[in-house]
Amino acid sequence: MTGTGSPLGAPAERREGRQKVTGGARYAAEHPLPGRAHAWPVPATIARGRVTAVDTAAALALPGVLTVLTHEDAPRIAEPDDPTLAVLQDPRVPHRGWCVALVVARSPEEARAAAGAVRVEYAVEEHDVTLRADHPGMYEPDTANGGNPARREHGDPEGALASAPVRVDTAYRVPPLHNHPMEPHTSTAHWQGDRLVVHTSSQGTTTVRATLAALFGTPEDRITVTAGHVGGGFGSKGTPRPDVVLAVMAARRTGGPVTVALPRRQLPTTVGHRAPTLHRIRLGAGTDGRLTGLTHDVVTHSSRVKEFVEQAAVPARVMYAVPNSRTLHRLVRLDVPTPSWMRAPGEAPGMYALESAMDELAGELGMDPIQLRLVNEPDREPDSGKPFSSRHLTQCLRDGARRFGWAGRDPRPRSHAEGPLLVGTGVAAATYPVLVAPSTAEARALPDGTFVVRINATDIGTGARTVLTQVAADALGAPLDRVRTEVGDSDLPSAPLAGGSSGTASWGWSVHDACARLAEALAARTGPLPEEGVTAHADTTGRADADSPYARHAFGAHFAETTVDRVTGEVRVRRLLSVYAAGRILNARTARSQFIGGMTMGLGMALTEGSTMDTAFGDFTESDLASYHVPVHADVPGIEAHWIDEEDPHLNPMGSKGIGEIGIVGTAAAIGNAVHHATGIRFRDLPLTPDKVL
Ligand code: MOS
Asked: Spelled out in words, what is the top-level CATH class assigned to the domain 17-25+437-539?
């Protein structure tokens, strides 16, 4: 911490940085517990059917094996709200990779070897894992993820499109995508008498504790769930996953501590994925570029286990002024693993499609794509009619254009080549909603002049404990190094998960309030503090969850320069530059990391990441990091993330919007638009791998 004045906004270094790089930070599998055993799940090898027999004799005879849990003898649990957690409760196999047995052994190696020796027999049923836009089982759900209505209509979109002088009617496809955090989903569970202690890799342990209490019939005050350090999640650790349920079951069976660390190859079927989305977008505009009609129809899949609807048509309700519109989601339930949240669910695939279609419309109009966006700026949120609390997309586009050097661009496709390389540039907008949830927090002043802030926030690698310390120091009027922040333990004051880019806003609000209250109490006091210090509490229930009269969203603009090799079909991103308007930025260092991390993930979505459903086996073909290609350093150029100072009084005491997800939103469109500019060819099926481009 350098400089004077408020610590808010300063590029403070991560408080746990030293611990992480020296190995002192403990992750869920790394808590030293004497006598700890290790468990390895046995995944179903059929896509649909029933387990008819499990022969564990050979596995039990192997060295180090303690027990094997099957659906016949695993501890019974109450019916979970999330049916993906009902593991080892019955013989049904709803998709390939569903857990059908769990081997517990002294070491991970012995558990893995024994898992391979478990013999499972099945009654196999026909399966269907193929998503098609004309699937006979397709239906319109009531709501999509996030509680969004599945369908919204305004005016007469069909009429408006029919009479529009300029039209685009186009289709895009985003494949299944996998979260693949560096640290796989891992849980260590230990029953100590009637107390349960769990170390888990989760985005929020308040939820994990509540879930385990319900499933195992144990009061919450006898359960402690910690997640002190988490190696990423990207949504896939937003809710408890089977690893934590299996670990608790196994620990109950053996009586000692048990770790379940999901093997990388089991993640795609077990922890959720971004569901594939098929998009049809129609845009109608006047010759001046003003939109008159828009339809965005999304078809996506979910499993037989649970309805999850990727809300990819939702951003079209936010972005552009258009009097006649329809945004619609339809779903096909297939024998596939259950999809779930992956960084910017809805917005990431939806804005790929919408921002690609806007680029196509700009081409039809012969209009600069930035200008097209400017003429369609709404003065209110199109769907709700609410005023925006703040919306600086125009400034992001203009500032980005200046920084990127957009002026003087030759708009003609395929107009620039360097030897075998075709060079192009593209632009796209970004948006992400401002979400916030109630939280509690505690702040304490100690006689030695230091402060302790306690809150069950989760730092999944974002720098949450650092930024919360800044919020606290700011509200206390204290230097940063006087404040210690405890997070990642369900015994701390309860707090919502690190998800929906809502963590800092939600936690920060209660930390701010607790610290402001403490500062007041201290100001009213005279004399030395008592030994136990002075404590203040805050609970933002009823305020952080109140409906706002404003439409609240962050916005941004991405600019990409790509090269396309005419000989190999290889697309490379040369430059990626984005400008965001996301309220007040609370830590310039960790915010930049969030932005460029999201942009890198968007680059992966554009060029390298994609999963394929093997129709014969009914499973994802790309199940490890050798086949599912996340971008590596050599794929990623210098990335620039900038932001404009945005003051918005309608958010929270810090004035911040979420920043964790917006970086991935629209990035793939900017890159795809640059590829179109380079080649003159519009590719509409991600990722843009050489086999498609050549
Ligand atoms: Mo994020 S996909 O809401 O963790």
From this structure: alpha beta
Reply yes or no on whether the pLDDT at 560 is more than 90: yes
Ligand 1 mean position, distance from CA 520 (Å): 36
What separation in Å is there between the alpha carbon of 342 and the centre of ligand 1? 6
User: C-alpha angle 590/593/597, rounded to 5°?
Assistant: 145
Averaged pLDDT score across all residues of the chain: 97
Question: What per-residue confidence (pLDDT) applies to 653?
Answer: 97
Residues with CB under 6 A from ligand 1: 203, 233-235, 238, 341-343, 345, 499-500
**Pocket residue to mutate for ligand 1, from 241, 314, 341, most atoms within 8 A of Cβ:** 341
Q: 25 falls in which pLDDT band (50, 70, 90)?
A: very high
Q: What pLDDT shows up at residue 6? A: 74
CATH superfamily of domain region 37-126+182-232+237-270: Aldehyde oxidase/xanthine dehydrogenase, a/b hammerhead (3.90.1170.50)
The predicted structure's pLDDT at residue 2: 39
Domain range list for the chain:
17-25+437-539, 37-126+182-232+237-270, 143-177+273-434+549-693
- The pLDDT tens digits of the residues spanning 175-186 come to 999 999 999 999
17-25+437-539 against 143-177+273-434+549-693: fold identical: yes
Ligand 1 atom at minimum distance from 497 CA: 4
What is the 141 CA–ligand 1 centroid distance (Å)? 22
Q: From the CA of 345, give the closest atom in ligand 1.
A: 2
**Is 520 in the active site?**
no
269 alpha carbon – ligand 1 mean position (Å) = 18
Task: Give dist(CA 515, CA 7) in Å, integer.
Answer: 14
Choose among 509, 366, 369: nearest CA to 426: 369
pLDDT at 533 over 50: yes
Residue entry with tokens 């898992």: 115
CATH code 1.10.1240.10 for 143-177+273-434+549-693: no
**Candidate list 347, 442, 646, 661, residue with the active-site label:** 661
The identity of residue 300, as a single letter, is: T
Give the ligand 1 atom nearest the CA of 342. 2
Burial of residue 491 (number of CB atoms within 10 Å: 0-12, 13-18, 19+): middle
**ipTM entry:** 0.97
Return all residues near 417 (Cβ < 8 A) that are at least 6 apart.
Answer: 423
DSSP state of 136: T
